[in-house]
Amino acid sequence: MGLIEAAFRFCPLCGTALRLRRVEAHELPACPACDFVAFRDPKVVVAMIAHDPAGRVLALRRGIAPARGEWALPGGYVDFDEHPARSAERECWEETGCRVVAERLEGVHHVGLPHAGLIVLAYSGPVLEGIPTTGPEALELGFFAPPALPELAFTSHREVVAAWLAARAGALGPSTLQG
Ligand SMILES: [Zn+2]
After folding, report:
1. Is-contact 96 133, C-beta < 8 A?
2. 78 CA distance to ligand 1 middle (Å)
3. How close is the Cα of 13 to the center of ligand 1, in Å?
4. 39 CA → ligand 1 middle, Å
5. Which listed residue, 32, 85, 130, 135, has the most CB atoms within 10 A of its CB?
6. How far is the CA of 17 from the centre of ligand 1 (A)?
7. Residue 151 contacts residue 144 (beta carbons within 8 Å)
8. How many angstroms does the Cα of residue 113 sit away from the middle of ligand 1?
9. How far is the CA of 114 from the centre of ligand 1 (A)?
10. 28 strand-pairing partners
11. How far is the CA of 81 from the centre of ligand 1 (A)?
């Protein structure tokens, strides 16, 4: 990674031009005049498995990039001052018009992009109220029995659903595992 690709070229604390410095495993832009280092933190995002009493999962066809026009779970970025469970509930409300409670943390997934990383926290919980409603963020949406769930755009969301289904199958009892 060169300085051109970095978020900062000058120290935001003292204005000195940054230089690359080896910090543990990475070469990072760092200030030669003070202690500032432009660390590259992963973004934290949430994905929500919002389910109805029949075990159907709420999915939406995205109205915004990335993956506009493709199907996904409700979800999005965690604000800096927000518990991620609240982020999952908020994103579901904003995108679908459904109130959900993030009852369980289902898993932690990692998405490695060339110059960035995402940490995906997957929650599940029941929909308490609301009717799925289209809007700027959702072109189409509905509850789907898992076998009828449309192909999801994001690998992480497919992993989230697969892990959730596996956990539910396990919760039905050992007899199902023994066949
Ligand atoms: Zn500085």
Report:
1. yes
2. 29
3. 5
4. 14
5. 85
6. 8
7. no
8. 28
9. 27
10. 21
11. 26
Tens of each residue's pLDDT in the chain, 179 residues: 444 455 789 999 999 999 999 999 889 999 999 999 998 899 999 999 999 999 999 999 999 999 999 999 999 999 999 999 999 999 999 999 999 999 999 999 999 988 789 999 999 999 999 999 999 999 999 999 999 999 999 999 999 999 999 988 887 655 444 43
Beta carbons within 8 Å of 135's beta carbon, 6+ residues apart: 63, 95, 97
Q: Ligand 1 mean position to 18 CA, how many Å?
A: 8
Output the pTM of the full model.
Answer: 0.84
Q: What gap in Å lies between CA 11 and CA 126, rounded to an integer?
A: 46
Name the H helices within the chain.
84-96, 155-171, 174-178
Return the structure tokens found at 70: 């493709």
For 4-35, give one letter per residue: b (16+ CB within 10 A) or e.
Answer: eebeeeebeeeeeebeeeeeeeeebbbbeeee
Q: Structural domains in the chain? A: 1-39 (no CATH), 43-145 (3.90.79.10)
